[in-house]
């Protein structure tokens, strides 16, 4: 059965490669290839995942995401708000084709409040095919096509106003 649920992530204008370069301080965040959770942890005391939604949806319920992923009868969706010291810093939406959940990746169904990055970056076989950047109004966003043991998943992240990406002077851990 398809889950008709509104995404926590509203329409994003994805940037094409022809668009002018990103501001340097923004590029440093959006093009981060390591764990965003670990990067954020350097700027706060405590990260918490507020799990908004997890479940399967059918192919037709995807947005333009369907053009970026192989066709599958079902996809696992995970939507979270990442909060740092009780402030929302990031919206995350992960779309995982059913076939990606085979073998050890079955564990992705049981992440709950564990940050996705803890699973991804503990894998010995994680590759990032690309990062595409975008805008949601005044906010910056990015999406990454990742491969776990050559099985794809798409991660979209929107950086909320309180995120350190917007605060170029607040770049060190608070005392
Ligand atoms: C998640 O737990 O789903 C998650 C965590 C951190 C991100 C994106 C997604 O940057």
From TrEMBL:
Enzyme class: lyase
GO cellular component, one term: cytosol
Chain residues that bind substrate: 36, 78, 116, 157
UniProt pathway annotation: Cofactor biosynthesis; ubiquinone biosynthesis
Keyword flag Lyase: yes
Chief localization: cytoplasm
Pfam families assigned to the protein according to its UniProt record, in alphabetical order: Chor_lyase
Superkingdom of origin: Bacteria
Catalytic activity: chorismate = 4-hydroxybenzoate + pyruvate
SUPFAM superfamilies named in the record: Chorismate lyase-like
Compartment list: Cytoplasm
EC numbers on record: 4.1.3.40
Keyword set, alphabetical order: Cytoplasm, Lyase, Pyruvate, Ubiquinone biosynthesis
GO biological process, one term: pyruvate biosynthetic process
GO molecular function, one term: chorismate lyase activity
Assembly description: Monomer.
Record-stated family: Belongs to the UbiC family.
PANTHER family assigned to the protein according to its UniProt record, in alphabetical order: CHORISMATE PYRUVATE-LYASE
Physiological role: Removes the pyruvyl group from chorismate, with concomitant aromatization of the ring, to provide 4-hydroxybenzoate (4HB) for the ubiquinone pathway.
Name of this chain's protein: Chorismate pyruvate-lyase
Organism: Candidatus Williamhamiltonella defendens
Gene this protein is translated from: ubiC
């Amino acid at each position: 059965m398809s889950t008709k649920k509104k995404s926590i992530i509203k329409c994003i204008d994805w940037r094409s490669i022809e668009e002018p370069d990103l501001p340097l301080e923004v590029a440093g965040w959006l093009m981060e290839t390591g764990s965003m959770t670990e990067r954020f942890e350097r700027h706060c005391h405590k990260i918490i995942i507020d799990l908004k939604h997890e479940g399967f949806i059918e192919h037709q319920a995807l947005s333009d995401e369907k053009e970026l992923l192989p066709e599958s009868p079902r996809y696992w969706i995970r939507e979270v708000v990442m909060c740092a010291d009780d402030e929302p810093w990031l919206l995350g939406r992960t779309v995982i084709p059913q076939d990606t959940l085979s073998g050890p990746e079955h564990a992705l169904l049981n992440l709950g409040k564990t940050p996705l990055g803890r699973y991804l970056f503990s894998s010995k076989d994680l590759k990032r095919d690309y990062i595409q950047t975008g805008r949601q109004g005044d906010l910056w966003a990015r999406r990454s096509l990742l491969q776990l043991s050559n099985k794809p998943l798409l991660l979209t992240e929107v950086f909320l106003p309180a995120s350190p990406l917007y605060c170029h002077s607040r770049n060190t851990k608070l005392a």
